[in-house]
Amino acid sequence: MAKTSESGAFVEKFILPPTSSSQQLPLSGLTFAVKDIFDVDGYVTGFGNPDWKRTHSAATLTAPAVLDVLEGGATCVGKTIMDEMAYCINGENIHYGTPTNPCAPDRVPGGSSSGSAVAVGAGLVDFSLGSDTGGSVRVPASYCGILGFRPSHDAISTSGVIPMAQSFDTVGWFARDPAVLNRVGRVLLHLPNVNPVRPSQIFIPEDCFSLSSIPSARTTGVLIKSIEKLFGGSILKHVNLGDYVKEKVPSSHHFMAKGNDHAYNIPSLAALSSSMRLLQRYEFKKNHAEWITTVNPNLGPRLSERIWDAVRSPEENTGIYRSVQTELRAALTDLLKDEGILVLPTVPGDPPKLQMDLASLEVFRARAFSLLSIAGVSGFCQVSIPLGMHNNLPVSISLLAKHGSDAFLLNLVEVLYDTIQEEAGFAEKFTN
Hints:
The protein has helices at about 50-55, 65-70, 115-120, 140-145, 180-190, 205-210, 220-230, 240-250, 265-295, 300-310, 320-335, 360-380, 405-430, and strands at about 10-15, 30-35, 75-80, 125-130, 145-150, 170-175, 200-205, 235-240, 340-345, 380-390, 395-400. The protein has about 425 residues and is an alpha/beta fold.
């Protein structure tokens, strides 16, 4: 089927009814869309590229994550546009069109789960499924002013999802309503309903927020006031995350840039980003180099060079990458302990303009991946929470919890959400 005109979000529309008509199911009455990286029985999974779709057969099984939400009572209404081969965080696609950012039509929607975020942000569905490897749920959630959840790595089956880089691939989801976000998460994660738990400590790394162009009054200021109202200020702690990672993750020193290459960044976090992107490139090559070299697909100009660089990259010993992952997970687990939260900017500033010049975009991307790699390398769960608008552009903040603490984090978002939105609305009046 042809792409519909609904904000350019969909690449294909169809209806998959829930597997049960019971009104008692947790997702009964809700609609959802799926990124075109998930297998759906009878449909070709397009992976954002027409040549991929042309050279692959229809799926004969539906991805378990899709089946789970169908069994939870939700109705699927179609597949959404994504960045080609999931290799970008912008959301621009020259083949199928770029979905329109509902908050800022002249800005990118974020990728690679662009259509899934736009479908939710534009109110076309109640929730949607995406995948997040380097930031592909968190980034479009931030740019489109909605909630986006990246679960703990390996917490949800990625079977039936085309792999990008298995060390980082996760099934994530978007919603406008924190209660829906929570319900979808419990279905996907097969979690029982449990009562919210008070966070023990909330860490705010001031160095990370210095990477953001958004005034602190619109980010940490909003969160701090919300935490003080709900839990009191005693659980708030200020840390320098860059120094902590530098000390506790010695393997990352292998990826430290020499000289002043990262004067606009935090060296230890830039090193995390470098290790993640190199391992991601290595795994992407293992997964897809044969198809790319055989088919020589038509790729968008901004992606083609990056994808071919991955294909032509040398074979590497991945041991040092694994050490960085192990050390970072241990270090952050020790920092947060049980029920601790790490606060971060989801992205370092406003959504980039459509077709932004590459030089400006590269500085932004470098900072973004330094922030995004914290959850990516550690495997921790992360949620992006909208904070309204600043200068007519969407603002967000992220919360991270240790690996396996998905239920705790989902509950916390639901508890915090209304208070955060009140404080964000108040801040918006005085800072815009």
